[in-house]
Amino acid sequence: MNDVIPQTVANDEKIIRGLFHPNNFHKKKGELLSNVFRSPAGIDEVSVIRLDYTTIDFCKFHFKKIEKPEDGRNYFGFALLQTHEIRGCNSDVVASPLKYDEYSLPQHADIKYGYIPEKNKELPVEIRLKIECIYQKVKNNLFQDPDYKNLEEN
Amino acid sequence: MNPNELLQALTDLSKSSLRHKEQEYAIKSPYYCESFYKPRATDASSITFYTISDRNPNFLKALHVLAQIKNLGANWDNYDAIIPSYSAIKNVESFLKKLPGTYLNILDEEYIYPNPNGTISIEWRRNDDVISIEFGEQTANFFSIIKSKISFEESISNIDDVIPQKILDSLSIFSNS
User: Measured over all CA atoms, what is the biggest interatomic distance in chain B, rounded to whole angstroms?
Assistant: First the structure.
């Protein structure tokens, strides 16, 4: 499959970010928080999947694999964006195929802001504004998985 | 016991009962939160005492959220987040103690949240308008976008001491818009 997936992410490609409840959500409003588009310390990578080269079912399989219900983190669904929307916020999307023990994820990509966050230090405002720009575009473009059950409600 | 003595005894009893009720309220209050009574660290220097004036319901709700954030482990977002910084949490608490009640009253505590690199954000949001403050271990910064107008300030080093005028101005515009 790797052979047929171009290493350049086209501007019209659909990109999805898996969402996990509850720590990226405003629980009462069910609204997404902008921390979902932030990179961990030490790397400039916000993990996404290129939807044009896979299916929602496969993405769900992957997200269910990495969820941690035993720690109270459940797969909720995903946020959908187009690559040009991310690039329109002075950020980029680059292909970054992954290989796990059981399966590979050649459709994997990363949003990059051009800045590596430091541990326990606030991001520069310039980077925070890029994230806010993406957040404003995606906040109403969330898709809840039909099988999602809120652990707190249950 | 003459009537005056009886009246005095009843008054004293009533005052004592009220004091007891007040203590009971403090313990059973819906705004009770762990950090309020049991600071995480055990050394005496780290214990924070709050006064009656700190009992703004939104302040207490915010403390409750911060207590939950304190309890998060690594990878709380499933994308390799680190444990939130204890110093950043304390900086948020100090900031909230300095924040005028008018702005505390319009704070939604669920817009206090951790970031994957250990910092803490506080936001005020309404439609596309936002005021966002990010607290690190040493410093903080802020930006606001209100009616498409951007204001910001980088590397604020004493935010727990003095709230920058730009933040207060943005909060004033936000609360009046």
Answer: 75
- Contacting A with CB below 8 Å, chain B residues are 72-73, 75-82, 85, 87-88, 108, 110-111, 113-119, 121, 123, 128, 130, 132, 134-143, 145, 150, 152-154
- CA A40 to chain B, closest CA, distance in angstroms equals 5
Residues of B in contact with A117 (CB under 8 A): 116-117
pLDDT in tens, A19-73: 998 888 988 888 999 999 999 999 999 999 999 999 999 999 999 998 888 888 8
In single-letter form, the type of residue at position A137 comes to K
CA B125 to chain A, closest CA, distance in angstroms equals 11
Instruction: Check CB contact under 8 Å for A120 and B113.
Output: no
**What is the nearest CA distance from A107 to chain B, expressed in angstroms?**
17
Is the distance from CB of A39 to CB of B115 less than 8 angstroms?
Answer: no
Is pLDDT of B53 > 70?
A: no
3-state secondary structure of B111: helix
Q: What pLDDT, on the 0 to 100 scale, is given for residue A60? A: 93
The crossing angle, in degrees rounded to 10, of helices B86-98 and B57-70 is: 180
Is some CB atom of chain B closer than 8 A to the CB atom of A129? yes
Identify the residue with better confidence: A93 or B55.
A93
The neighbouring-strand residues paired with A78 are A18, A143
Q: What is the pLDDT of residue B2?
A: 57
ipTM metric: 0.91
Bridge partners, A77 (sequence order): A19, A144
Could you give the CA distance from residue B152 to residue B166 in angstroms, rounded to a whole number? Answer: 7
Burial label for B134, CB within 10 Å (0-12, 13-18, 19+), is buried
